[in-house]
UniProtKB/TrEMBL annotation:
Transmembrane segments: 7-24, 36-57, 64-85, 97-117, 162-185
Protein name: Inner membrane-spanning protein YciB
Record's subcellular location: Cell inner membrane
Keyword Ribosomal protein: no
PANTHER family named in the record: INNER MEMBRANE-SPANNING PROTEIN YCIB (PTHR36917:SF1), INTRACELLULAR SEPTATION PROTEIN A-RELATED (PTHR36917)
Amino acid sequence: MSPKLKAALDYGPLIVFLAVFLLYRDQDVMLWGQTYPGLILATLVFVPLTVLANAVLWKMTGELSVMQLVTLVVVVVFGGLTVWLNDPRFIKMKPTLIYLTFAALLAIGAALGRNWLGRALGEAIPLSPEGWRILTRRIIWFCLGLAALNEVIWRTQSDTTWVVFKTVGLIVLTMLFFVGNAPLFGRHALQPQDNGDSPR
């Protein structure tokens, strides 16, 4: 798949979500006889776009990762509740649930001796078994930290602050996390002659 198309499918719904919110954040919109604030309207647009993006991705690649499926289910359920109940708290709790779910899945995999992270990222980041173990622990703590940070921000800050955090802040923090782990990737990178254990 073209990198540009992949990026559009991954980030397009988020960009549209941010744009719709910024356009309507200071006004209410009447739909189906009910008044919706800007955040609810943005969610109403975001959910079907996310479903469409994942459908295109599945059509073109023939598969969706566990992380993509979990995210899709949470978006549909919590986004749907947000619109149905006209209550923005559900969409604000969505990142918390997603990150807690990722942390739990990785922790279960580690406890079972399974390299689930390697299965998801092995082609992009070839690491030794020890490297995957270290990275898995770090990502578990990183996900827990993001879940806690999301709870603090949506409960204490304005809708605008939370939306910018969700659409821009989380991406930036994730990029910084992987940049900060560059030394780990260098120390534990698999060389062509290495015969490290394959991800299970």
